[in-house]
């Protein structure tokens, strides 16, 4: 089978007994970075010296078939540099290939920066969405954030310390200065820190410089009590920023409680002067 191995995100004491036992017995490890994997094996004082193969974003597709074939007759351990493989890390294409080939896939649970940051953020945890890394370019980043401006669930992002201040500035611009935010850095490590406050307050803190691995947690939008024309205007605003009409209608419907279908049809009519019904009526008969 294929075993996705959750590894410590900072503190080695978070390595589970099951992880240690699996690494002590395995024959082959597919690792995001084999050098990091070797350091972990040594830090855990393991005597086993399994064969290591690199599995990263640039070679995963071409390596997948070969690794799946190996996993038909022996256990293949898959490790990212930290945390759970496939979650903003290599492994997805391998798992998809294994599922298609009928090869069993399991996972060893381990520390998760996403869940830990969410848990300590002080923001609602009952519903959330993980959005991965924000785009590097400001224009693309603003487009993504504006598309999420009416997302009602708590949002979790990964970010580089070099871009944290710029991303927080864009959060202020797209979501508002008063949106609640928590920035978690160096989780489980010696200098672990969580900065909580409004987006503008956390931005002021970040402008002085932030080091370490970063997770941003952002509160979801508050439900709006709006009428249909106001909702349609909000849909069209998202569309103007590049969101598809269907997706914009769904987002505003969830944020306001208005009918997604009513929003879609009214917005379509306002944009084009046509409704879905008369669009269909204008199709030529075959």
Provide structural commentary.
By secondary structure, the chain is of the alpha/beta class. The chain folds into three domains: 2-111, Tetrapyrrole methylase, N-terminal domain (Cobalt-precorrin-4 Transmethylase, domain 1); 114-218, Tetrapyrrole methylase, C-terminal domain (Methyltransferase, Cobalt-precorrin-4 Transmethylase, Domain 2, 2-Layer Sandwich); 228-275. The chain contains twelve helices and ten strands. It has a five-stranded parallel sheet with strand order 3-2-4-1-5, sandwiched between helices. Strands 6-7-10-8-9 form a five-stranded mixed sheet, with helices on both faces.
SSE layout and pairing:
Layout: E1 2-5, H1 17-25, E2 28-31, H2 34-43, E3 51-54, H3 60-71, E4 76-79, H4 92-101, E5 105-108, H5 113-120, E6 128-133, H6 138-147, E7 154-159, H7 164-175, E8 180-185, E9 193-198, H8 199-206, E10 214-218, H9 228-240, H10 245-256, H11 260-272, H12 276-281
Parallel strand pairs: 1-4, 1-5, 2-3, 2-4, 6-7
Antiparallel strand pairs: 7-10, 8-9, 8-10
Helix pairs in contact: 3-4, 6-7, 7-8, 9-10, 9-11, 10-11
